């Protein structure tokens, strides 16, 4: 039987609608949540994301700030922009678009963002809070993936989850969230022996690798849920890029019980969760109760 297609695009629109409702309530009290995006250099893919983040921020009723620096910007210039945003009371969320140009020290830059405004959840203090089961800012892509899984399955307790990829921005926080929801979690990576056999154990597979079509349907346990985080750009004859995931969609959709498409799966959830995190940060900054259903 063909897998159910998990409509991340539609779910993300619902999340953004909830965020917009909360924002309207805050604005009635004279509070406008604000998100600042810092973009260093002009990577074309980053330009696309930053533009759609700005548009969706404004559509949700929030204040949107864009700080652009040339690819040649010095580390001190980037740090002083972040420090200014840390001190700006109209800004509740700060996102430094990755990847950064190679001459910049990414960990030093991310560590400069005020953890309370770290809507990406990349600051080590947020990573540590998440790992120790405390209230944190949770990275957007794992948070969005978890929302899709909870919507599909309700309680995840006892499920076997295999996360492929161990990056600090996707794989590791994803594994932490699944663990917190009582899954039995395995993290696989490039040194994993017999990856297909590991994946075959999984009720839930999260693929966050960046290798187009790597996971094939015959790796999957029939009926399992596949969350495809990967995004690889493939040039097409028309000159416009097409994006594909880490899973071979055609063969996986024959075996899985449910699968996220690329595009239209996890990607839109990432941006919706960025707005949700900005709202959460704004509520915390103002000592107000947090929105329900929009945090982990
Ligand atoms: N949809 C969205 O919103 C988002 C999508 N992405 C996409 O998700 C993907 C992953 O991103 P990110 O985590 O930043 O990537 P990284 O490159 O930081 O991490 C990739 C991970 O995949 C592992 N890996 C590489 N090759 C293999 C292999 N052959 N078998 C098993 N594991 C392997 C690596 O292992 P090792 O550690 O051993 O090197 C590493 O842990 C990318 O395609 C990215 O574009 C990212 C963020 C948001
Ligand atoms: N500090 C930081 N935080 C990030 O969250 C971050 C980042 N840097 N750098 C790049 C990655 C990638 N990322 C995506 C966001 C949205 C889509 C998205 O909306 N994708 C759509 C389609 C987009 C298209 O067609 O290109 C989809 O999958 O349907 C994808 C990927 C966030 N990232």
From TrEMBL:
Keywords: Amino-acid biosynthesis, Histidine biosynthesis, Hydrolase, Methionine biosynthesis, Multifunctional enzyme, NADP, One-carbon metabolism, Oxidoreductase, Purine biosynthesis. InterPro entries: Aminoacid_DH-like_N_sf, NAD(P)-bd_dom_sf, THF_DH/CycHdrlase, THF_DH/CycHdrlase_cat_dom, THF_DH/CycHdrlase_CS, THF_DH/CycHdrlase_NAD-bd_dom. It comes from the Bacteria. It catalyses: (6R)-5,10-methenyltetrahydrofolate + H2O = (6R)-10-formyltetrahydrofolate + H(+); (6R)-5,10-methylene-5,6,7,8-tetrahydrofolate + NADP(+) = (6R)-5,10-methenyltetrahydrofolate + NADPH. Its EC number is 1.5.1.5, 3.5.4.9. Signal peptide: none annotated. Residues 139-284 form the Tetrahydrofolate dehydrogenase/cyclohydrolase NAD(P)-binding domain. Pathway: One-carbon metabolism; tetrahydrofolate interconversion. The keyword Cytoplasm does not apply. NADP(+) binds at residues 165-167, 231. HAMAP family: THF_DHG_CYH. Catalyzes the oxidation of 5,10-methylenetetrahydrofolate to 5,10-methenyltetrahydrofolate and then the hydrolysis of 5,10-methenyltetrahydrofolate to 10-formyltetrahydrofolate. PANTHER family: C-1-TETRAHYDROFOLATE SYNTHASE, CYTOPLASMIC, C-1-TETRAHYDROFOLATE SYNTHASE, CYTOPLASMIC-RELATED. Homodimer. Belongs to the tetrahydrofolate dehydrogenase/cyclohydrolase family. This is Bifunctional protein FolD. It comes from Seohaeicola nanhaiensis.
